[in-house]
């Protein structure tokens, strides 16, 4: 897997987003703005989420892991969103059911097989609920970055 970029500039703390669509769009546009993703990326993320929801209900601090085809990516990166007010997100295991998501890890990867390896790292992070609590309570992007790096890289 090529080096995947992650930095405090790829962390967004949301205080007021009210839907998963708003959160996804903001994170996807951040990746485009920073040159990691192509202009097609936000639409590709939105379309994939409709067909294959990414919400993960862990009966604690729930998360989502949106991603799309590698053809929409320039350079590999992870963009993280922390939601101060959780939003309903369709679950990957039960698409007709939602869960309240507080943490989003949007993957922009350039190799198809890299998705599985990175998704496994994200799942390991999500399963560490003590760390997730610290992340969602973090005061700023730098602190979120430092904490998330413990499991992601």
Fold and architecture overview:
The protein has one domain (8-140): Mannitol-specific EII, Chain A, CATH 3.40.930. It starts with 10 loop residues before the first strand and ends with a helix. 39% of the residues lie in helices and 22% in strands. A hairpin with a 7-residue loop joins strand 4 and strand 5 (98-108). It is globular and about 35 Å long. It is α/β, with parallel strands linked by helices and 153 residues long. It has helices at 20-33, 41-51, 114-127, 129-136, 141-152, and strands spanning 11-14, 55-56, 62-64, 77-90, 98-108. The longest helix has 14 residues, at 20-33. Helix 3 (114-127) crosses helix 5. It has a five-stranded mixed sheet. The protein has five helices and five strands; from the N terminus they run βααββββααα.
Strand and helix map with partners:
Layout: E1 11-14, H1 20-33, H2 41-51, E2 55-56, E3 62-64, E4 77-90, E5 98-108, H3 114-127, H4 129-136, H5 141-152
Parallel strand pairs: 1-4, 3-5
Antiparallel strand pairs: 2-3, 4-5
Helix pairs in contact: 1-2, 3-5, 4-5
């Amino acid at each position: 897997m090529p080096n995947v970029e992650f930095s405090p500039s790829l962390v967004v703390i949301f205080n007021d987003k009210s839907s998963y669509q708003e959160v996804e769009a903001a994170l996807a546009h951040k990746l485009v703005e920073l040159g990691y993703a192509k202009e097609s990326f936000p639409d590709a993320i939105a379309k994939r989420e409709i067909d294959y929801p990414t919400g993960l209900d862990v009966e604690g601090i729930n998360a989502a892991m949106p991603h799309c085809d590698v053809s929409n990516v320039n350079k590999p990166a992870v963009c993280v969103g922390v939601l101060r007010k959780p939003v309903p997100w369709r679950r990957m295991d039960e698409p007709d059911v939602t869960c309240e998501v507080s943490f989003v890890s949007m993957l922009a990867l350039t190799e198809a097989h890299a998705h599985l390896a990175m998704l496994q790292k994200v799942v390991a992070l999500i399963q560490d609920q003590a760390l997730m609590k610290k992340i969602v309570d973090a005061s700023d992007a730098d602190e979120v970055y430092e904490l998330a790096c413990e499991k992601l890289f």
